[in-house]
Design brief:
Blueprint lengths: L2 H19 L5 E4 L2 E4 H16 L5 H8 L17 H25 L4 H11 L8 H17 L1 H7 L2 H11 L5 H8 L5 H14 L5
Antiparallel strand pairs: 1-2
Helix pairs in contact: 1-2, 2-6, 3-5, 4-5, 6-9, 8-10
Length: about 200
């Protein structure tokens, strides 16, 4: 496939993904503007991918943009409360995101092998072994810290926030942790991250 054709195919795929995410009925306020939540998340994910890997491959770009595709279609409330219910919901969501993305990508000309690779990244297959899967994880963690951590911390007890962050930080590369440390945040939230980092470190417990 010629370079121009590949570029046009990627542009069509990103447009299709954005069109779906724009349907999200949930809103997040970003710089004073209420945006569809998953459209904002996908845009910020692409931003962080470019910041971490400015020559990221096409399939990684697609996986990042589609990482929460139509997430609102399976509400968390449909699963039991607690960690077991949460993890079951997360597993099913990853399958759904990969399946939804695959349908869109097939429709604009991506091969079965390419669709499968995007699905692997969305499902985080090979995390810990696959460098692209690590970048994908870094991007998602940065989006959460940048767009949701402040409101999440306000709505939950400090110990719960620290516990979740202590499980999140070890998933990130040192480079991504450095980026996260420079993100603007309130002093209280910064303190929660520092406490979580201490708890997550081998000598922190």
């Amino acid at each position: 496939m010629e370079t121009n054709d590949r570029g046009e195919r990627l542009a069509r795929a990103l447009t299709a993904i954005d069109a779906v995410n724009a349907e999200d009925p949930n809103r997040l306020t970003w710089h004073g503007e209420a945006r569809p939540k998953e459209l904002l998340h996908s845009e910020r994910a692409s931003h962080w991918l470019e910041a971490l890997e400015n020559e990221a491959g096409e399939l990684l770009q697609l996986a990042v943009r589609a990482h929460h595709l139509r997430r609102w279609g399976l509400p968390r409330a449909e699963y039991p409360k607690g960690r077991a219910g949460y993890h079951a919901w997360r597993r099913e969501q990853k399958k759904r995101h990969a399946r939804e993305a695959g349908g869109l990508l097939s429709g604009v000309g991506y091969s079965t092998e390419e669709v499968d690779r995007v699905g692997q990244l969305i499902r985080k297959v090979g995390l810990g072994r696959d460098p692209e899967a690590q970048v994908f994880e870094d991007v998602l963690c940065l989006v959460f810290i940048e767009t949701q951590l402040e409101s999440f911390a306000t709505a939950h007890e400090d110990d719960k926030v620290v516990e979740i962050l202590a499980r999140t930080l070890p998933k990130m590369s040192d480079r991504a942790k450095g980026v996260a440390a420079r993100l603007p945040m309130s002093p209280d939230t910064g303190d929660l991250i520092r406490r979580a980092a201490e708890r997550a470190s081998p000598s922190g417990s």
